[in-house]
Specification:
Elements lengths: L10 E4 L6 H7 L6 E5 L1 H17 L4 E5 L6 H14 L3 E6 L1 H13 L4 E5 L11 E5 L5 E6 L6 E5 H4 L4 H24 L11 H26 L5 H21 L3 H9 L10 H16 L3 H14 L15 H11 L15 H16 L1
Parallel strand pairs: 1-8, 2-3, 2-4, 4-5, 5-8
Antiparallel strand pairs: 6-7
Length: 363
């Protein structure tokens, strides 16, 4: 099996980075016209800056307002809009679901994609993967696309204006990166691009985890005050670049499968991707028999930054046996990433791990 490392073509991050969008596109030889698939907050914060930056670079553009969910119906609607506009580039601006929609559309039309997250809420911006949900919010599938974004431009001034909960959710998603990467490496399974992991990918995944522990609480304080600090810059990089490279080039395991299982319970739909992934990390560590000290460190971190550590915190207080069994069954469905664990996993084992993780979080 060949080793494969996957990454975006270019990564730009910093205060007021959106002002450099046109110049960065020109430098990379990316012209227009471009369709900007925009979330509501992205449009509110950045529309005037897009006009100035892209007009100065003489790049034509149109804006398509996102419907919010990354579903088959939304992808089809945006695909039609991009085709009708004659655009040769698709730019996603907003949260993870907006970026996933733009990425899927660009792949369907064989166009380059630019990723401009306005929240560091997931590791979606850098990847060549879109998470597809049903119209009701239940996980449906991972859609692997052919290319990573040509450009990822991360404006930390915009991210500092986003709700603090989004940064916390991003840390929950990033928290899984190291634990899933080391599991996939130990099991010698294929990564998200179909190859073996590299030492570079696992090193980036471990750096992601160390950065979360060192800077998480200080970065959260910055966002709560709508300020940009070095700690925030480091956490944004961890949530976005380190986690994105680490998960894609190393692989996913139980934590993300548990997330997918949790979406089978409608009570969890109001909760964010990274919030459910964080509980998935605790479940994975229990499932793997991780040392108590390691589980305690993860519990302490989650508590410090406000990530869920119990089923109740995900809307599943007093969940019945039928609901929990449905979650465990969905998490262990054929083809799920929980089967990247270096031992056979079934629904019964997963249900026990869910219950134990919940007990540890409650205690």
């Amino acid at each position: 099996m060949l080793s494969v490392f996957s990454s975006p073509g270019h990564y730009v991050q910093g205060r007021d980075a959106t002002a450099a969008l046109g110049a960065e596109m020109t430098r990379l030889g990316i012209g227009g016209p471009v369709t900007i698939v925009a979330g509501a907050s992205a449009y509110r914060l950045l529309a005037d800056i897009w006009e100035q930056s892209l007009t100065e670079a003489k790049i034509e553009y149109t804006v398509h307002r996102s419907g919010g969910e990354c579903s088959r119906a939304e992808i089809a609607e945006v695909t039609a809009a991009v085709r009708d506009s004659g655009s040769t580039v698709v730019l996603g601006a907003g949260g993870g679901k907006v970026l996933d929609t733009a990425r899927a559309v660009a792949d369907d039309l064989d166009l380059p994609m630019i990723s401009c997250p306005t929240a560091a809420s997931s590791d979606a911006p850098c990847s060549a993967l879109s998470v597809i949900y049903t119209d009701t919010g239940e996980f449906e599938a991972y859609q692997l696309v052919r290319r990573n974004p040509a450009l990822v431009l991360v404006d930390t001034s915009a991210i500092a204006q986003a709700p603090a909960r989004l940064l916390t959710a991003g840390m929950g998603d990033a928290l899984a990166t190291w634990f899933e990467a080391r599991t996939c490496s130990a099991a010698r399974v294929r990564n998200m691009r179909g190859g073996a992991s590299t030492r570079s990918a696992t090193a980036l995944a471990e750096l992601c985890y160390r950065t979360l522990l060192a800077d998480g609480s200080h970065a959260l304080a910055a966002v709560r005050n709508h300020t940009v600090t070095p700690a925030l810059e480091r956490i944004v990089e961890a949530n976005t670049l380190l986690s994105g490279l680490g998960f894609e080039s190393s692989g996913l395991a139980a934590a993300h499968a548990v997330h997918n299982g949790l979406t089978a319970a409608p009570q969890t739909h109001p909760f964010l991707h990274g919030e459910k992934v964080a509980f998935g990390v605790l479940t994975q560590l229990v499932l793997e028999g991780a040392p108590a000290t390691e589980i305690t460190t993860v519990l302490d971190f989650c508590t410090e930054v406000g990530l869920p550590t119990t089923l109740a915190a995900l809307g599943l207080r007093d969940a019945d046996q039928k609901t929990l069994s449905a979650i465990a069954t969905r998490a262990t469905a054929p083809g799920e990433t929980i089967h990247n664990e270096p031992f056979t996993v079934d629904a019964e084992m997963t249900l026990d791990a869910l219950r134990t993780a919940d007990a540890l979080g409650t205690r």
